[in-house]
Amino acid sequence: MLLPFRHRSKLNSKIILPPLPTLWMGNIAYLDRDGVINYGSENYINSVEELVLFPKIGESIGKLRREGFRICVVTNQSPIGRELWGHENLAEIHDHLSELLLEQDSDAFLDLILYSPYAPWEGSWARKPNPGMLEAGRQILQKGSTNPEREISLFFGHNWINEFDESKSVMVGDRDVDMEAARKFGVRGIKCSPEEGLPGVLNQIFNRG
Ligand SMILES: [Mg+2]
Q1: Which of 32, 105, 111, 174 is catalytic?
Q2: 33 CA from centroid of ligand 1 (Å)
Q3: Residue 4, Cα to own-chain centre: how many angstroms?
Q4: How many whole angstroms separate alpha carbon 124 and alpha carbon 159?
Q5: Residue 58 Cα, ligand 1 centroid: separation in angstroms?
Q6: Residue 173 C-alpha to ligand 1 middle, in angstroms?
Q7: Lowest mean pLDDT among 5-14, 39-48, 51-60, 161-170
Q8: Residue 29 C-alpha to ligand 1 middle, in angstroms?
Q9: Cα of 50 to ligand 1 centre, how many Å?
Q10: pTM of the entire structure?
Q11: Which of 57, 80, 154, 165 has the fewest CB atoms below 10 angstroms from its CB?
């Protein structure tokens, strides 16, 4: 199986999660990256220089964490599978992204960054619209918070028995593939505008109706 990748770590390595500003009740905000945290581009975000964050994005992610959400970025990154550039380039972009967010808001910590490096034709379960990254994200964050000393065994697809309550979690994305991944996984999907990103739908996350 073509598994998701995790920023600067093996997928199943143990994870040390910093405490949330509030008690964690299991809520996760699964966030697409381009069009949600930073402006997207038809030609991909290929370097640190091309990364431009939405206004107030640090504050938005900080607020999610202050309201009890762990943050799990789930991003398709096919340029790697298309052999345009490699994992290290993406890792540098994600290091920079994390730094910029924390400069804006000291609570705006990305608890987990998962990405799918595969090209569409590879048919990976980890590539949205499939839900593999969300399945991995839940298990890593859940097991990391209950058993931080252990390596993490992960289950996917038919082997993944969803024993966790996703009813207070949310997946935010700007495209149909994000909403499809949310539906397949069983979490509420909120579609944002690629011009406004997460800050434009933040109120919808808290106002259920
Ligand atoms: Mg997007």
Answers
A1: 32
A2: 6
A3: 11
A4: 16
A5: 17
A6: 6
A7: 161-170
A8: 15
A9: 15
A10: 0.97
A11: 165
How far apart CA 97 and CA 91 sit, in angstroms, is: 10
Is residue 95 among the annotated active site residues?
no
- Give the rounded percent of residues in the chain with a pLDDT score beyond 70: 99
Task: Give the separation between CA 94 and CA 91, rounded to whole angstroms.
Answer: 5
Instruction: Please report the domains of the chain, with CATH numbers, ordered by start residue.
Output: 5-195 (3.40.50.1000)
Is residue 105 part of the annotated active site? The answer reads no
In terms of Cα–Cα distance, which of 96, 89, 92, 86 is closest to 38? 96
Summarised one tens digit per residue, pLDDT across range 22-62 is 999 999 999 999 999 999 999 999 999 999 999 999 999 99
Q: Tell me the two tokens of residue 96.
A: 């920079």
Residue with tokens 């999907």, as numbered in its chain: 189
Q: Where are the beta strands (DSSP E) in the chain?
A: 5-6, 28-31, 70-76, 112-116, 170-173, 188-191
